[in-house]
Design goal:
Largest sheet: 4 strands, mixed
Number of helices: 9
Radius of gyration: 37 Å
Distance between the termini: 11 Å
Number of domains: 3
Helix content: 55-70%
Amino acid sequence: MIHSMTGYASASRDLGRAALSLEIKSVNSRYLDIGFRLAEELRALEMPLRERIAERIGRGKIEVRGYLQPQAAQGTGPRDRNPDPAALAELARLEAAVRGALPGAAPFSVAEVLRWPGVLADDSLSAAEVQAAALEAFAGLIGEFVASREREGAKLADVLRERAARMREQLRAVEPLVPAAAAAYGERLATKLREAVANLDEERIRQEIGVFAAKIDVAEELARLATHLDELDRVLRKGGAVGKRLDFLMQELNREANTLASKSVSGEVTAIALELKLLIEQMREQVQNLE
């Protein structure tokens, strides 16, 4: 599969006393660049999450966000919670010991007793519970994220194939134009030479035209363009991390299109060379998005 460097996925979990939200997104980058924006309870997960991302992703600027939103859980109001008998007994023992030493000490009020740590069961989430839930949620999240990059990569590959097909059409169109354009330009050049140098013999004129024809021959450029397009098709079929390879191919295609334009001796060939350059630039823009 071919992967885009652009992707997005999100996940949420209801943890009772809190709602966990995770989000991962990425944009283009030359390297793998991972950043985190995590709630305090999730900061300990940065390293394991970084490792899991690196196992699945090769390139891209990736941002991971994780939040905890407190929420009231059902059935956990004061009416649904009973004091811990053991905690009450221990608190009574401590109060008796204090009052034995300090008879004038004020007794605990009911509100103070209920606020005492451990008297009412603490149903808040522990850091370990939150982190375990986050890791479990992230396992599915990273799969969804990779799938989103695959879908985007498939679309970009289709765009590249369509542009490559249009380039092949342009190459087929330019091939029959080149000999006629070179012959016509040679005739014009011969006429100018005769006018400029009256005593120049026909053999010398033919030699000069032959030298010029060799300089404007574009058969090699057309062959290289076709070869690079064949390599483009091969790379797309192979898949994997193709971005850097395709970026190099775009440079080579552009080089050959520039040479074709510089050697052109007719308006039609020049127009085709410019169309090729436009298609190459459109492909290059898409290649920048591929991993």
